[in-house]
Amino acid sequence: MDGLLPELDVIRKDFPILERTFDNGQPLVYLDSANTSQKPQVVIDTMVDHLERHNANISRAMHQLGAESTEAFEGARDKVATFIGAPDRDEVIFTKNATESLNLVANTLAWATGDLAVGEGDEVVITEMEHHSNIVPWQLLTQRKGATLRWFGLTEDGRLDLSNLDELINERTKVVSLTWVSNMLGTINPITQIARRAHEVGAIVVVDASQAVPQLPVDVAASGADLLAFTGHKVVGPTGIGVLWGKRAVLDQLPPFHGGGEMIETVRMDISTYAGIPHKFEAGTPPIIEAIGLGAAVDYLGHIGMEAVHAHEQAITGYALEGLATVPGLKVLGPLEARERGGAISFEVEGVHPHDIAQVLDSRGIAVRAGHHCAKPAHARFGVQSSTRMSSYLYTTPSEIDALVEGLEYTRSYFKLG
Fold it and tell me: Is the pTM above the cut of 0.85?
């Protein structure tokens, strides 16, 4: 199959969990990578080695272990900056996940003064396909500040409706925040086009890249984003680590999010002054081991090459769309062309609840997700309460897609659908 990673068998051996067999003898078929990706041995080993040989708090300890730990932590920042094309390594802020990154932005914009301040009469624009983490923080911001929340609607085939782009993003718009790749519909959004319009009216652009960074070659400097968030556990890294990248000119204007150690310049009883970026936004002991694990993860993906990862994702996604089209009563939610979407494919099967589908598939060793995928408004747009979602990644094989299709046929038979 054109586009598949040529060393796929070798890559799969890097992920020890993929050798798992369940008690019923079924091998694991992992198709839930949009939820969390699996981890290669090098990430696991890197984290264990640091805990065994170098563990210490960073920046504060005046001894060799502290220096080693600090070097590894800051080295991870360098690796992430290189991986996403950040022109300045200090523009990379470590958080605990993408949700915290997006909340950091929404809250500090609520507290900001000057040009970035959001107030009464201003507007924030999002989209109907957002993850809840890129909806709720903006609802809170606009409610607190007397601003108005507006959003792009969706077309029948799961794309953004840009017919009112110039009306929706206007002189009152202060923030445009949108996903690069939908976690439910798989849609790849034209963020550079939308960012161009936003910048014409002086708005800042926030991008949720949680599904994009694992799948696409990302160059933040060329993306059109002013601020961009993603999470480590979807890029073969550990949980508990996220990234907020932002242009220095924007980050310098934002006030601190958390107060505490390391984010200060000096503290008196009556007033404090604050460190510059990135430390201004990294109060307290950070997720040290997790950041180091993320550094190993982006090194691993960088060695394979994100162009190759993207080509593999498109090939597997195309193969999955073809296979799913053969299942009677199955409807895919979102674009039907692999080149226009990411690897997450949500679908319905007429006559079977998504939870029942997931349970039957699980009995055959196939891991998928069922529910609203933290995207209830997008489900409501298409008149469905929930869906089943399969999601592939760089270790997914055509035979695993075949197993899914066979499992769905078995599910229909199990529920006597013919």
Answer: yes
